[in-house]
Amino acid sequence: MAKNNHSLNFWSGILFGLGMIAFIDETVFHQLLHWHHFYDKSTTDVGLVSDGLFHAFSWFATVIGLFMVAHLRKQKYWNRKRWIGAVLFGAGVFQLYDGIIQHKVFRLHQIRYDVEIFYYDLVWNIGAVLFIIIGLLILRRKRVNSA
C-alpha cells in the first residue's frame, strides 16, 4: 500500500472519530439531557447557536472522513482495522481535549451543573484515555502485522 493511502486511512479515521464523538456529545449531553451547551458563559440563545456551530463542525468532520473512505474503497486501499484504530484514537483525543481544555482550562462548559463534577470528569477523561489506548493498540498491532 502506498504511503499516501496509509496516511489517508489514518486521517479519514481521525476525522470520522472526532465527528462521531462530537455528534454523540452534542446529541446526548446538549440536546437530549440538556446538561450543557457548547458555550455556557452567556445566554441560552448564545448557547444554542454555539451548539449549532458545534453540530455543523461534527457533521463536516464525519462527512469528510466518509468521503475519504469512499475514495480509499474505490481505489481498493481501505484498511478497515487501521481505520477503526484511528476512529477510536480520534474520538479519544477529541474527548480528552474537551474534558481538559474546554471544561477545565477555558471553562466553556462543564459536563453537568449542580452536581459533584469530579466523578463526571473522572469517567469522561478515563473514557477518553481508554479510547486512545485501544485505538493506539489497534494501530500499533496493524503496523506490526504490516511490516
Which descriptors apply to this entry?
147 residues; mainly alpha; 80% helix
Produce a short descriptive summary.
The protein contains four helices and no strands. With 147 residues, the protein is an all-alpha fold.
Separation of termini?
A: 11 Å
Helix content range: over 70%
| DSSP strand count | 0
Number of helices: 4
Class from helix and strand fractions: mainly alpha
Number of domains: 1
Name the helix and strand elements from N-terminus to C-terminus, one letter apiece. HHHH
| Main β sheet profile | none
Radius of gyration: 17 Å
Strand content: under 5%
Describe this structure in words.
This protein is mainly α. The chain has one domain (3-146). 80% of the residues lie in helices and 0% in strands. The protein contains four helices and no strands. Helix 3 (80-105) packs antiparallel against helix 4 (117-146). The longest helix is centred in the middle third of the chain and has 31 residues, at 44-74. The chain is globular. The mean pLDDT is 92.
